[in-house]
Amino acid sequence: MIKHIVLWSFRPQAEGRSKQENIELAREKLLGLKESIPEIRSLEIGININTGQDAFDLALYSEFENEKDLDTYQKHPEHIKAVDFLRKVRDRRVVADYPTES
After folding, report:
1. Maximum distance among all alpha carbons in the chain?
2. pTM to 2 decimal places
3. Using CB atoms within 10 A as the burial measure, which of 34, 48, 78, 79 is most buried?
4. Rounded to whole angstroms, how far apart are CA atoms 25 and 100?
């Protein structure tokens, strides 16, 4: 199994919306990927309650059967739409992909 984790921090204002509005919209868009992309084995999206200086605003945790499924997800048109939106409203992004036994 491959675990895919992404964290984002958002700009205070972007695309005519507040930070909180963009966080909520990003959450909705990302949650919708589960319905569109069958390769997603598991998907969680969380809005961070930690408001510290080093905290990120939004977290994505997902699981895929293998690297091929992760690659299919990353190239899927619905995922690309979400990425395009996030690039416009995010400030920072970090990602980790790693294999596990279970």
Report:
1. 44
2. 0.93
3. 79
4. 31
Q: For residue 40, give every residue at least 6 positions away whose Cβ sits within 8 Å of its Cβ, in sequence order, or none.
A: 33, 34, 62, 63, 64, 73
- E strands of 11-69, at which residues? 13-14, 17-18, 40-47, 58-64
Joined tokens for residue 42: 């598991």
Of 34, 27, 4, the closest CA to residue 90 belongs to 27
- CB-based contact 79:29 (threshold 8 Å): no
Please count the helices (runs of H) and the strands (runs of E) in the chain.
Answer: 3, 6
The 10s digit of each residue's pLDDT in 48-89 is 999 899 999 999 999 999 999 999 999 999 999 999 999 999
Domain ranges, residue 49? 2-98
Neighbours of 43 (CB within 10 A): 19
Q: Supply the CATH number for residue 70's domain.
A: 3.30.70.100
d(CA 48, CA 7): 10
Counting the structural domains of the chain, the total is 1
